[in-house]
Amino acid sequence: MSTYAQKKGFGATVWDYLTTVDHKKIAVLYLIAGGFFFVVGGLEAMFIRIQLAVPNSDFVSAGLYNQILTMHGTTMIFLAAMPLLFGFMNAIMPLQIGARDVAFPFINALGFWLFFFGGVFLNLSWFLGGAPDAGWTSYASLSLASEGHGIDFYLLGLQISGAGTLMGGINFLVTIINMRAPGMTYMRMPLFTWTTFVASALILFAFPPLTVGIFLLMFDRLFGSNFFVTAAGGNTIIWEHLFWIFGHPEVYILVLPAFGIFSEIIPVFSRKRLFGYSSMVFATVLIGFLGFMVWAHHMFTVGLGPIANAIFAVATMAIAVPTGIKIFNWLFTMWGGSIKFTTPMHYAVAFIPSFLMGGVTGVMLASAAADYQYHDTYFVVAHFHYVIVGGVVFAILAGTTFYWPKMFGTMLNETLGKITFWLFFIGFHLTFFIQHFLGLWGMPRRIFTFLEGQGLETGNFVSTVGAFFMAAATVVLVINIIITTVKNERVGNDPWGDGRTLEWAIPSPPPFYNFKQLPLVRGLDPLWIEKMEGKKGMTPAEPLGDIHMPNASFIPFVISFGLFVAAFGAMYRLDYGWGLPVLIIGLAITFGSMFLRSVKDDHGFHIHKEELIDEDDNKGVKA
Amino acid sequence: MKKLAKWRLFSLLALMALILSGCGKPYLSTLQPAGEVAQRQYDLMQLSTIIMVGVIAVVTIIFLIVVFRFKRKDEQIPKQVEGSHKLEIIWTVIPILLLLVLAVPTVIETFRLADVSAMDEVNEDGKTDALVINVRANLYWWEFEYPNEEIVTSQELVVPTDQRVYFNLKASDVKHSFWIPSVGGKMDTNTDNINKFWLKFDSKGAEKANELFYGKCAELCGPSHALMDFKVRAVPSDEFDQWVASMQGIEEPIQPETALAQEGQELFNQSCIGCHAITPNNASPEAARVAPNLTDFGDRAYVAGILENNEENIKKWLADPETLKPGNKMSKTYGELTPEQIDALTAYLMELKVQE
Ligand SMILES: [Cu+2]
Questions:
Q1: Is A238 within the bounds of a domain?
Q2: Dist. CA B317–CA B141, nearest whole Å
């Protein structure tokens, strides 16, 4: 079993990734797929901004615009931001807690492939008669009225990829609960692990409502039920509740890991431990908890009545408190520190005021009576882009530069990284700041054009200019990645020099078993503790022994592929005779391979002690 | 980091310039409130903005100090601080107090704006003393029914200034949302239920807006969601009463005067009357009212809510509504019209006036 040490051909590498159950390779898959969808969603955003650059533009038609705006939102949330964060969670979290993999490596792979096939399915709608066009919220009356199969692509695609996300979340939860290294108590876990933990718990509770909602809508559209058909006694408001009971926690599913990434970066480049660690943990948990109590603030204008509106308004405002705690804790981590302005730190520093802007407009929106004015206008568009771009995308860009050496063993170019940062930072504020005002001046969101003489021309033009800056930043980032990969200059364990947590104690990239010997954790920031005592690395918590590893498997791919096939069958069942057989074949593939997995014993394999010692002798072996 | 500071200064200046120059248009902007509801909402906006700018200012000061003072100068390891209970209590308690300052008026206003008790106070005739208007949102047009006055109009809402106007809101196809930005926040028109709220149109604000406010659909409803505009004519109450009286006076379709318009009327009666009513009474059931009521079309300022109402634009609309409003429910329902027919119909439509 030493094949893992050999250099592989292209075909073998592809096969390796198709069958891998290694969390680090799955992380790479998430980054590639998420990065791809990020570019797709970004192109859609550019089309939106080009269309809105001038009044009465006919760059895209009204119907096509609605498809683009729907796919932009859906892609960015479900297929870009979440998978990219999942990528970091997969790559880093097991290392941070000193584990050799996640709890269920097979399910981890299954989660990825489900997400991937769901995303591909959703995007194939572009080529198969038109994309969904009812917004990422897909409110029931409109989505039921929508013709063609666009909405069906949305429903089936999200159902499949959502199942993957749910599995991923459960897997992370179990991993963090069960697989921490000796000494890694809960209150010694790095903040990124904590936020992964809370975000995973949110996934566990937030995705089922979405699944239910999507199922009901799918039955209405494909199988003639009437859950949301008003004329037949159905109720569309129920969809709105189900969607937002999922949708609001979703925001925290995205933003908590982003907080986590910044909570790692700021201490490292300030050379100072996170200020108020326990209050940070407390705030994270509290945000997660409150995140479930506020969904109706997306529905203030629906007519729920003043009592509901008032309660949800006050609950929403309450979230500002733990968020504020975090902001101050970050600032005071830097206070008295020794700050080095690397590229990741640029993002972290810029994140604080940018995200703060999104936070304060969030409080403004929480004021129900005033929200009647903001709701469904560009003010809201500005608000959530400040939160999601200023928070989550900044974190993803920061995380990419920060963890790149750990994941790939090379360092992204700092100059290009800073160029990306400045272009993105300027473009971001240029695009979205003005949109607050556009909303207040009376511009509703989701409009494919605006007419002259309403005072909206300048603002929209400025916003479009900003979008081009962000596009340029993305191009520079891609160039940076290519250059770095070609140059291939290898780095050591702790390339930033000030790593504090366990991931920086092992090689970059780590060997496939991560830790030869599980480390002994003696406190928060375990590596930092050892370094301050003059030691080079972690003290092992166990003698060198055999390591048990899981076998690679092609089955996750096949299970997901079966659902992908079945989805086509379900959708075209009424249009074509082949629909029903395809549905059955697809399900047969899925359940057949699940059956196979259940009956075939797979005990994994052991890496023997001797091989591990061997490795020490011939350094530079590729994992 | 110098660059960052400069940039912040610049954006602050830009912000000031914006605030000074740009409050939007008086007929469309929420920043130029022209009624009690919008005013109360504007006050809440200001209150929250002041609080939030205060918070931003404090954070910015700390932020700037941190960024400039604690830049790495040497390789020394700074003191590792665990936290500070005192500080943590401060930045927990102060925000809570600030939020209370905002929460209390928020709750009060939320209840105040939802107070529609006047809609339930019915007099002997089974009518309300308050002015009530039933708004029905349809794929891309609006119907306004005055149940007490027993009249219907479309696309252009007519209201009296300086008194509360109550609304029943609903949608007949998919969900829309009823919004007159400068007069008050929006409320959804659902397919499931009737929503109620009130607005007040300020006479001074109406003057500034030339008596014509812009109204919008604020909920994505299909391709022409962006074009689902309506207009609001807010007039002094005596003028409003006059308008009501002249509408009520029309029991038979208005007879056109010129020969061309009479020709148009004939055409209209053949191809259009199945959808468009030209008498204002509300006796026919809603399901039969599938298109804008055109009784007072000639008085309206806009065609289909988006084009200035003049001969040229009416012709454009009749010749090709699809390009003007993609996906609208009139396109391709009345056969091809020759230019002559369009001329005749236009002449007729322009004579559909209830006021001089
Ligand atoms: Cu609408």
A1: yes
A2: 14
Residue at A518: amino acid letter: L
DSSP letter (8 states) at residue A98: T
d(CA A611, CA A605): 13
CA of B291 to the centre of ligand 1 (A): 15
Phi, psi of A137 (to 5 degrees): -80, -20
Residue in B44, B63, B72 closest to A367 by CB: B44
Asked whether residue B54 is assigned to any structural domain, the reply reads: yes
Residue B24 DSSP SS3 = coil
User: What are the φ/ψ torsions at residue A293 (nearest 5 degrees)?
Assistant: -100, 5
Looking at the structure of chain A, the number of domains it has is 1
Q: What is the pLDDT of residues B277-296, one digit of tens each?
A: 999 988 888 888 999 999 99
Closest among A622, A602, A601, A608 to A551, alpha carbons compared = A602
Q: How far is CA B16 from CA A456, A481, B47, in A?
A: 18, 40, 18
A455 close to A441: Cβ distance less than 8 angstroms? yes
Spatial separation of the C-alpha atoms in residues A184 and A97, rounded to whole Å? 7
Predicted pLDDT of residue A613: 78
Q: Residues 331 to 360 of A: which have CB under 8 A from any B CB?
A: 331-332, 334-341, 349-350, 352-353, 356-357, 360
Whether A421 contacts A481, CB under 8 Å: no
Number of domains present in the structure of chain B: 2
Rounded Cα–Cα distance for residues B205 and B38 (Å): 11
Predicted confidence at residue B3, as pLDDT, reads 59
Closest of A98, A9, A102, A35 to residue A404, by C-alpha: A35
For residue A213, tell me if it sits in a domain.
yes
Looking at this protein, which amino acid is placed at residue A562? G
CATH number of the domain enclosing B306: 2.60.40.420
Whether a cis peptide bond, with omega within 30° of 0, leads into A509 is yes
Type of residue numbered B33: P
Token readout for B343 is 């001329």
Cβ atoms A140, A242 nearer than 8 A: no
Q: Distances from the Cα of A29 to the Cαs of A16, A33, A253, B308, in angstroms?
A: 11, 6, 20, 55
CA angle A382, A293, A170 (to 5 degrees): 95
In a domain, B8, yes or no: yes
In a domain? residue B103: yes
**A137 vs B262: CA distance, rounded Å:** 49
Domain containing residue A379 = 10-553+602-611
Is the Cβ–Cβ distance between B21 and A459 less than 8 Å?
Answer: no
What ipTM, to 2 d.p.? 0.92
The shortest CB-CB distance from B173 to any of A145, A306, A361 is to A145
- CA dist B260 to A336, B266, B345, Å? 85, 10, 8
Mean pLDDT per 10-residue interval, chain B, length 356 residues: 62 61 84 95 95 93 94 89 90 94 96 93 86 96 95 96 96 96 96 95 93 95 95 95 94 92 94 93 89 95 95 95 94 91 96 86
Which residues are paired to B234 by β-bridges? B159
pLDDT of B17 reads 57
- List the CATH number of the domain containing A321: 1.20.210.10
Domain contains B290: yes
Q: Which residues contact A136 (CB under 8 A, 6 or more apart)?
A: A70, A73, A74, A77
Quick one: residue A359, left, alpha or beta (phi over 0 = left, psi -120 to 50 = alpha)?
alpha
**What does residue B168 show for φ and ψ, rounded to 5 degrees?**
-100, 130
A41 domain-assigned: yes
Distance of CA A193 to the CA centre of its chain: 15
Assigned domain for A572 exists: no
Q: If contacts are CB pairs under 8 Å, which of residues 96-155 in chain B contact chain A?
A: 96, 99, 102-103, 106-107, 109-114
User: Which chain A residue shows the shortest CA-CA distance from B26?
Assistant: A441
In the block, residue with structure tokens 């009521």 = B293
Domain of residue B319: give its range: 259-350
Mean pLDDT, rounded, for A191-203: 97
